[in-house]
Amino acid sequence: MYVATGLLATGSSVVSARDAVAARRWLADRTPAIEAPRPTT
Question: Can you give the pTM of this predicted structure?
């Protein structure tokens, strides 16, 4: 996932930032115990 995202976002820093946020939200849903103390914006 991270590799594919990096390759796709190589040409666009904006897309990279959005993918990073989306990835953090996705991981937050999958691992609430780890991301719970850290608020997601």
Answer: 0.40
Average pLDDT of span 11-29? 77
* CA-atom Rg of the chain in angstroms: 11
C-alpha dihedral (12, 13, 18, 24), degrees to nearest 10: 130
Residue 6 included in any domain:
yes
| 20/17 Cα distance (integer angstroms) | 5
40 within some domain? no
Q: What residues make up the domain containing 30?
A: 2-35
